[in-house]
Amino acid sequence: MAMPGSVKTSADFPIPDEMNAWVLDAPDELRYAKKAVPVPGKAEVLVRIDAVAICATDLDVISNGPPALIEGGLPFGKNWTPGHEYMGTIVAQGPGVDEFEIGQRVTVEIHAGCGQCPRCREGMYTSCLNYGLNYGDQNKGHRANGFTTDGGFCEYAVNNINTIACVADDMSDEEATLVVTAGTAMYGLTELGGLIAGEGIVVTGPGPIGLLGVAVAKALGAQPVILTGTRDNRLEIGKKLGADHVVNVRNEDPVEAVKRITNGRGVEYVLECAGATNGLNEAAQMVNRGGKICLAAFPHEPVPVDVAYLVRNNIYLYGIRGEGKSATHRAAAFMQQKRFDATIIHTHTFPMSDLLTGLKYARERIDDAIKVVVTNDHAASKRAAEAAE
């Protein structure tokens, strides 16, 4: 592909004019199509996508639309590509980029704020006030790939350099897609204060974010780490990632279990990753007075909240979106240091062309699927070549 003269490329990484990409035409209607390869602008790089993990939010977006916001509205029929938990290889540098080199393996975070609004200037780029208003016109600077701009269920994507984290040579493509999941958990714990060594935390919901929330909390020194959920197999995975106690809420009241484990004192923090209707009120009963709760899941309906209890007990409530305040970089550092083994939650891999099967496995939890990854053909070819050496 003939990139503009201001964009640096390499003969080692030829770039086609067109790429394969999944386009969301209507709710639950994805089409494998041809799209032009995007061109990186100032402070941006072109990433050849090697692998993408499927997130539960992808499933919501594909079926319902929100929280994706394209041209100020629903994402359907706008030639838009979903997917946001991807990694790959830098194949082109936009004007002025020297922070990363062509050929580097990288993983990405979703949000690049506009850099101009009050929230971005505070470092809260996941709460950019220009969110979702500039699809097709990137001059404002805001990007949330897979939500307000084209995402990763394709072969190439443009990323701002602020959303890039390098991947260690000994980290597989599949593991690298999990950095953003760990980054979301890290962001939640950052907002709760970040210094949790020796303090107790409950993580509710053993989905990917909850499981890696256990791993990150333990890596930060939390004690005890309590995981609650409904599926014994996932609770067992939580133990492998560092949970000191697990509670199956089908067999025991989770609030009573937390009180029993902590000798009636409760914990300092709750990371709520289940999105259950009663999740917030139960979390309030689990923390001690002055405790902190972080909400990291999307409930599918309005939930009743006992506000008076929160006020009387001086309980702090935080909501997070994505993996803000550079949490992805800190999570990547933990994973590169082997502080926990995120690969435990990766269960299935499919080729990008078979994305629909991957989505089915993720949605229906076929074969106990937890984290499903799809890979592009060039990644498979690379692995085959390395194996032959």
Please name the defining characteristics of this protein:
six-stranded parallel sheet; 389 residues; alpha/beta; single chain
Q: Label the overall shape.
A: globular
What does the radius of gyration come to? 21 Å
Helix % is 25-40%
Kindly state the mean pLDDT as a whole number? 93
How would you characterize the overall build of this protein?
The model has no long low-confidence stretch (mean pLDDT 93). The chain contains 12 helices and 18 strands. It is an alpha/beta fold and 389 residues long. Strand 11, helix 5 (208-219) and strand 12 form a beta-alpha-beta unit.
Q: How would you summarize this macromolecular structure in one to three sentences?
A:
With 389 residues, the chain is of the alpha/beta class.
